[in-house]
Design goal:
This protein is of the alpha+beta class and 147 residues long. 16% of the residues lie in helices and 31% in strands. A hairpin with a 4-residue loop joins strand 2 and strand 3 (73-79).
Length: 147
């Protein structure tokens, strides 16, 4: 007795792998989309609309500053009691600055450095200063309003 010919070809390894790759690629696109901001912000700084409470002013050292990475804000204290706030996103490639050291706000990506008093570029490749924000101290806490 002879076997009947197979009516549908078996799934090839190549077809299976290509299908799996397509599923993974689609899942990756969904994951990336899920991580994006729903605010529609242009990415120039913090996405907050009103004042942001950053906690105690004592967290910002005199002659230095503190990076509030989650809020994408850096607050400096160039002289005692004088606070300045800036976007923590570098104006070169949009990286978030990572520290305030030697009286400079420092970007880890390409070496840009900004002044703590005015956000001015002190070392490139950043083309423009960090955008300044309004900062006040209320009840000992820093309140920053992104522009």
């Amino acid at each position: 007795m002879s076997e009947a010919p197979e009516t549908s070809p078996a799934t090839s390894r190549r077809t299976l792998l290509c299908g799996a790759a397509a599923v993974l690629a689609a899942g990756g696109a969904v994951a990336v989309t899920g991580c994006s901001s729903s605010s529609g912000s242009s990415g120039s700084g913090s996405t907050a609309k009103g004042p942001v409470d950053l906690g105690p002013a004592s967290a910002v050292p005199e002659g230095g500053g503190t990076v509030f990475r989650e809020q994408k804000i850096v607050v400096t204290q160039p002289t005692a009691g004088q606070y300045k706030a800036f976007s923590a996103k570098c104006t070169h490639a949009g990286c978030v600055v990572d520290q305030v050291k030697n009286a400079q706000i420092q970007c880890p990506c390409h070496g840009s450095r900004f002044g703590i008093a005015d956000g001015a570029v002190q070392d490139g490749p950043a083309p423009t200063p960090l955008p300044a924000y309004t900062v006040t101290v209320e009840g000992g806490n820093l309140k920053v309003t992104p522009s």
